[in-house]
Every structure is written in structure tokens, then in C-alpha cells.
UniProtKB/TrEMBL annotation:
Bilayer-spanning residue ranges: 53-78, 134-159, 171-192
Organism: Ancylobacter defluvii
UniProt keyword list: Membrane, Transmembrane, Transmembrane helix
Protein name: Cytochrome b561
Record-level GO cellular component terms: plasma membrane
Length: 193
């Protein structure tokens, strides 16, 4: 089943609609969706290394736009939607401490957490809730999300075909490691808050 799913994503990467799907997942992940865009970015860069930079750009722009939705949820709808989402991801009791940390470390929080597998939606919603500077939120989101997606795309562009062979030969192991990193990011976020 895992191999069929992988082959489906690789085939999807060659369709014209793939870029739109990647943008949708990237935007949604920054505001409410639990699955990171890497699940599509990696196979798409492997299938089409000539478009890796374009895919990273699409991920960055969509992620920042989705981050603005997350920011708006935190700023305008925290008591309803924002609180529900934060509690859904298990961070409800830590938001106040996180919001207070923004006063002293706001720039660093956005930069560091935007690069890690820690759910970025928590950062975007809390940024709005803490009324962090919208200007700096956008600038830092562009830097951190761009660095993350361009790093992934760059590695896959330069490694190229050997990465595809490695992943296809060890698909179970690669999937397991990716799952550990994502789950580890959630767990780390629980303890780092």
C-alpha cells in the first residue's frame, strides 16, 4: 500500500494540477492542517528535479499566505476557532506562556520554529493571539519558511536521481524516519513550550 501511495504522489507530480495541490497543502498546514507539505514537496522534487526551485517558491508563498490566515485566526477568532485548533494539537495550556515569550523572543520563536517540524500553525495562531507585529511576522515567515523549503528542494535538486533510488529502495525506512521526525516535532513542541 505504501508503495502504491508513493507511486501515486510521483505520478501526481507530473500533472498540471500538482502545483495547485502543493500550494493548497502548504497554505492549509500553516493555519490548521496537520500534514506538512514535505509529504508532497519531496516526491515532487524527486520526480521533477528541474522544477525543485519552483516547488520551493510555491511552498514558501503558500505557507506565508496560510500563515496570515493562522495569524488572523489568532488575532480575530482565538476564543472560538483558534483555541479549538490549539487544543486539538495539545498546546492549549501552553499558549499563555508562549504569548508572553513573544515580548522578549518573538523574532527567534518565528525563525526557529519555522524551520523545525514543530507545527507552524501553532506559531501563526499564537502570533496573532499575542498581537505580534504583522510586518515582522510576514518578513520572518518568508525567511524561515523559504529557508526550510529551499533547503529541501536544493538537497533534492543536487542529489537528484540517487535520492530517488535511495527512497524507492528503502521506502519503508524513509517513511518511518519521516514519521518519527513529524511525531518528534509534535512531542518536542509540547515540552519546549
Amino acid at each position: 500500500m505504501l508503495r502504491r501511495l508513493y507511486q501515486w504522489v510521483i505520478a501526481l507530480a507530473e500533472r498540471p494540477s500538482a502545483t495547485w495541490a502543493l500550494a493548497g497543502v502548504s497554505a492549509a498546514e500553516s493555519s490548521f492542517f496537520p500534514v506538512p507539505p514535505d509529504i508532497m514537496l519531496v516526491p515532487m522534487c524527486i520526480a521533477r528535479p528541474d522544477r525543485a526551485w519552483w516547488y520551493a517558491f510555491i511552498c514558501t508563498v503558500a505557507s506565508v499566505l496560510g500563515g496570515l490566515v493562522g495569524y488572523a485566526i489568532g488575532a480575530l477568532l482565538y476564543e472560538t476557532v483558534g483555541m479549538f485548533l490549539i487544543q486539538l494539537y495539545g498546546y492549549g495550556d501552553k499558549v499563555d506562556a508562549f504569548a508572553k515569550a513573544y515580548a522578549e523572543y518573538g523574532h527567534w520563536i518565528i525563525l526557529i520554529k519555522g524551520l523545525t517540524p514543530i507545527p507552524y500553525k501553532v506559531v501563526t495562531i499564537t502570533s496573532g493571539f499575542a498581537h505580534y507585529s504583522l510586518f515582522w511576522f510576514v518578513v520572518l515567515s518568508i525567511i524561515t519558511r523559504g529557508a526550510r523549503f529551499f533547503l529541501v528542494a536544493g538537497l533534492l535538486y543536487w542529489i537528484g536521481p540517487p535520492a530517488r533510488v535511495f527512497i524507492e529502495e528503502r521506502l519503508g525506512l524513509v517513511t518511518f524516519v519521516f514519521a518519527v521526525v513529524v511525531v518528534g516535532g509534535f512531542i518536542a513542541a509540547l515540552y519546549l513550550f
